[in-house]
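Tokens for chain A. Residues wanted.
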């Protein structure tokens, strides 16, 4: 049992409901749901408490996943630095093979590194980086195929960290058990919003999910429970 308040926040990440997987998405945003200014500047919307929460999530999962847009724009390390704990495997979704070999998340540090591309994509990755090629029947890599591929490689807890398009695609595909939204006490007024889903005509068509609210210093965590609508992944490694 985790000590309070960590059990209430992180306890649900211990075991999946649909299968033996837990997939959690994460957004850090302003009060008005912005993740960046109109120029794309985003470092850092969240303060120390929000960053610590993100790094604690990294320390609790087996793999952290980002899309190629985030990997290229932010060149993240995806390591655990703001809290104590192990760094997870680093995974980038790179359909067309755009990731440069110099990307910091590919650095050799003893942690597993994986690049996921379309089946037909040719890559030139540094030694030790695993290349996972998946079919893309509609030109995009399906989130459920990505989850299944990582599960087959023994990853049971996954953090979909960014960017907004990647997390939104996993949300729309029913591939998230939880969604953690950390809201900073700022209003940007314009810029990129966090969630982007297909439009709906009426409010009653909106996605409604159970939610818990936690205070993180001056910031607020919305812990959204999406497990009831998460699609099951049949093939998992024990």
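Reply:
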């Amino acid at each position: 049992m985790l000590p309070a308040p960590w059990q209430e926040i992180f306890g649900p990440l211990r075991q999946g409901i649909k299968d033996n997987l837990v997939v959690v998405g994460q957004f850090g945003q302003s009060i008005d749901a912005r993740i960046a200014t109109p120029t794309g500047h985003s470092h850092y919307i969240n303060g120390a408490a929000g960053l610590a929460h993100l790094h604690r999530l990294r320390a609790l999962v087996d793999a952290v996943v980002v899309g190629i847009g985030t990997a290229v724009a932010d060149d993240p390390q995806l390591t655990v630095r703001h809290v104590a704990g192990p760094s997870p495997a680093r995974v980038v979704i790179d359909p067309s093979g755009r990731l440069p070999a110099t990307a910091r998340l590919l650095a050799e540090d003893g942690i597993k590194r994986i690049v996921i591309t379309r089946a037909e994509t040719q890559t030139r990755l540094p030694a030790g980086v695993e290349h996972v090629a998946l079919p893309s029947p509609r030109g995009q890599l399906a989130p459920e195929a990505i989850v299944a591929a990582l599960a087959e490689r023994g990853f049971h807890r996954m953090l979909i960290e960014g960017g907004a398009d990647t997390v939104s695609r996993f949300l729309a595909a029913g591939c998230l058990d939880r969604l953690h939204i950390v809201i900073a006490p700022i209003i940007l007024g314009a810029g990129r919003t966090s969630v982007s889903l297909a439009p709906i005509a009426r409010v009653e068509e909106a996605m409604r999910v159970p939610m818990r609210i936690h205070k993180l210093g001056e910031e607020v965590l919305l812990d959204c429970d999406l497990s009831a609508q998460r699609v099951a992944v049949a093939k998992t490694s024990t």
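The mean pLDDT is 93. Residues 20-158+176-229 form a domain with the Dihydrofolate Reductase, subunit A fold (CATH 3.40.430.10).
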